[in-house]
Fold these 3 entries.
Entry 1:
Amino acid sequence: MFDVLGIGSFAIDYLCVTDSYPQEDEKLEVDVLEMQGGGNIATACVAAGRLGGNVCYHGAVGSDENTQLILEELRREKVNTDHIEIKKGKNPVAFVIINRKNSTRTIVYSKKQVPSFGYEDVDTGIIGETGVLLIDFYYEKASLKASQEAKKLGIPVVLDAERVTPLTDDILRNTSHVVASKSFAREYTGSPRDRDMDKVLDEFSQKTVCPFIFITLGSDGVIGFDRENNKKYSQNAFEVDTFDTTGAGDVFHGAFSLFLSRKYSIDDILKYSSACSAIKCGELGGRKGIPTMKEVQEFLNIT
Ligand SMILES: Nc1ncnc2c1ncn2[C@@H]1O[C@H](COP(=O)(O)OP(=O)(O)OP(=O)(O)O)[C@@H](O)[C@H]1O
Ligand SMILES: [Mg+2]
């Protein structure tokens, strides 16, 4: 039995840190250039695993020079890879340029030639073997199928919503906990950039039937709404010496899913997940800074 089963994006990230963004047609030497595993759901799975969860990633990877690297990194983090199919094609790669001076990170990526993982590829048998299903919109059809199955079985579905896609509404109907980015919430509700995010949360909750709706706001924390109890939530982000925010959201989703499977209260889920993301921000890339449970407890002064 798994605590968390993840279906969705994975990638190899090439990360570099600079104090000035390069001009077009220019060469720029950087002090730090590193490769790490990335992708929303694969990184979330690693986070849930490092926190002590029994985690499985279900999907397809390509058949190029990065395949073993991707699989080995997941295995090293104790993420179960038995339900990953290797298919002919490329693995997704992302280039991340972190500009320390302006606190920005620019990402260039490609999905071309990445093998598909569709509706029929989902092994519905393992959906019943997990406490929580974690999905995104990367493999929309697979997310739809898995979420339909989970809903049927009464298994909570956590959705990392980053951008609106054709199946967004269908997937939201099967989702118990949507944890959306600020830009998704604005896009989905058609809200202008200057609209207060509490208002956007109200509009978001009116547009969906999801029982729990959350919007992560980067360094401004996270807000949420529990429909059944008509209860609002908010959790500030923890102040840390931030080095790089790449993957903060992914780590949040992984931690959220694990703590949900462990039946923490919503207040505690938000507090612990925020702590995990804040700690991660102290290191480069999505994965290096992910804490263990002991480190989270020390961070929160829990003995
Ligand atoms: N600079 C920061 N300092 C402390 N915590 C942060 C910071 N940035 C993000 N976090 C934490 O991580 C959570 C998720 O971050 P964010 O809202 O940026 O996710 P996102 O939009 O999905 O981004 P991405 O997927 O690119 O990481 C926030 O709610 C907050 O708790
Ligand atoms: Mg995100």
Note: The chain is about 35% helix and 25% strand.
Entry 2:
Amino acid sequence: MTEATARRIHPAGDPLRRALELLGDQWTLLILQSLFLRFRRYEELRLRLRISPTALSGRLRDMVAAGMLDKTPYRDSGRTRQEYRLTERGLELWPLFISIWAWEREWVQGRRDVLPSLRHVDCGQDTEAPLGCATCVLPVNARDVVSRRLDTKGAAGATTSKRFRRKDADFLSADPLMFFPDTMELLGDRWATGVVVSAMLGARHFSEFERELGIGPGVLSDRLTRLVDVDVLCTTTATTRTDAHAYRLTPKGRAFFPALAFIAEWAREFEVEGQKPDIMLDHVVCGQRLRPILLCEHCGKALDRDRIVFSHVPSPDRATQPT
Ligand SMILES: [Zn+2]
Ligand SMILES: [Zn+2]
């Protein structure tokens, strides 16, 4: 195999980069969340998110192409319209959304009062859905995990960044389930996500982030400032380096680890045969590769998608749309 062929089949950092390019976009996350809440029709999505038809169609097309959604026609008033359903690949993202919910409730001011609680049907208790390891079924803390980067060419980097402007989403804040302000600072922008992933993998200094991500200094500086503003990173003064500051994850930043672990796991499906993952996460307690799951802290069981219920969720209003 020539080197060029090998590169085409095993592009550097491809699986995680592909996952971040898909998921590191606010509209995509909001569309996915809406689909989990069973808003499936094009018009329902458009009205719920007040998204432009161009943006909605583009995101849906990308998600269908990535195998996350299926498009099914249905008849409405004699016309054929489209309905979107999550495929298995799309449904696999449910723990990511539960992690986001849990993190926002725990770490973002005022969110606990407005977000619904989650009940584990098996034991009947409200659960915070902590991260667990599928091998030993024990709770996992970010500190119990050793991360190894296998791709050195900037696995977390992204080629482009479609930044979602805050003002586009002001109206969303009226619905607490619809807008995750701090999460979107981390995940709604690929560069920001890249900075957080690099920080989890040990980057501390401006030049390290720059090198790892291949990011321009202006963009990096902007994302670092934003992440400090939302208390995901903090600065410490470095004494021996030429860089003025070192950046560290705060407890709030480290607590975002479960969401990133689920993204890294989901990205593995994008690996082609024989390709090594960009990042390896090992659970030091059992010595195995971390396969992330969610646990119930009361009964200790692994949570299943069909065995959890939120206390209240909106449902699509079909009053004006005959089924
Ligand atoms: Zn384990
Ligand atoms: Zn339970």
Note: The chain has 14 helices and twelve strands.
Entry 3:
Amino acid sequence: MPITTAYEAKIEHLQILDETGKLDARLARGTLTDKDVVYLYEHMSTCRHYDEVAFKLQRSGRMGTYPQNIGQEAAAAGSGFAMRKQDYIVPCYRENAALFHHGLPMEKILLHWMGDERGNEIPEGVHVLPISIPIGTHMLHAAGIAWAFKLRKEDRVAITYFGDGATSEGDFHEAMNFATTLKLPCIFFCQNNSWAISVPREKQMASKTVVQKALAYEAHGIRVDGNDIFACYKATKDAIARAKKGQPTLIEAVTYRLGDHTTADDARRYRDQAELDAWKKKDPLLRVRIYLENKKLWNDKKQTALEARAKEFVTQVVKNAEGIEAPTTDDIFDHTFATLPEQLLVQKRTLRTNGLGQFPEQETLRA
Ligand SMILES: Cc1ncc(C[n+]2csc(CCOP(=O)(O)OP(=O)(O)O)c2C)c(N)n1
Ligand SMILES: [Mg+2]
């Protein structure tokens, strides 16, 4: 009996709003309303301004490092907008628009990159995990969270975001395997921006797409235009419906980072200017603006007012982040263990003293 292999598999590709701002009305039916699109445009624009401000904070020595999100806002905003309040977001580090929409205060991300652990303290009732710098590890956390939802019979779904490079990590394959074998309400959202720092997709994996990896695990797979909020929204909404029935989805959102990998990188050393210029024309914000203007839902006056609002809002966010009281040295110890092991307890108590000898715990240490 012949077996159908990946070579015969068809890859589903979805685009609803093209680069020129033209909408496929048939595919768009039942997706985003005009009000939703205006909100998403304003939200993405505010996130872009936040991104620019964060970049400048790093350049002026007020933040350690920062990975720009510029160019990838639609993938994060469109998918994040589909998630319900009770659903969980398990992010990488280029999904600010999804996190902020889901309720994470903007100053948290700034604090994280300023090296303040309090940036990782998620407020009660906001269902997101802290951003993950180790590539890929968090995908297993998403599968675990989804497993808990299933065991508790809760109507909740976990979505995890990651890059194309992360799909070359073992964690991706383990998480996909767990999620599909255990039939978990889990969504895998890959932002394929063609590059893993300076390594292009074709040097990193033999497969021509990320989505074909879904086939090996019997997950549903769909490839979408990652710069199209309609497509990202619809693919995620459909994936939620599938997840609730126990079928995980792998969404490959084809996008591009218009900035450097992080502020520690200079992409001009390995990327062609022509490639960058071509992707600038596919800017996810630009096409939404054209679409809205064509529908008479947007104009220059509204744009000017939005820019002023975004500026005022983000200025306040920066003030909140920089104005926070400096942490005490206790902060180094307080976030990993519920009960500190004895050695760390001694270190915590003696960190700001001249020596260890004056504390009785030292005796225990020597013993
Ligand atoms: C486990 C691990 N290995 C290596 C790194 C170093 N590193 C940081 S980002 C990155 C590339 C990630 O590429 P991709 O997954 O495509 O995400 P992108 O940055 O393009 O959004 C690497 C290798 C890391 N952070 N963690
Ligand atoms: Mg990448």
Note: DSSP finds 15 helices and eight strands in the chain.
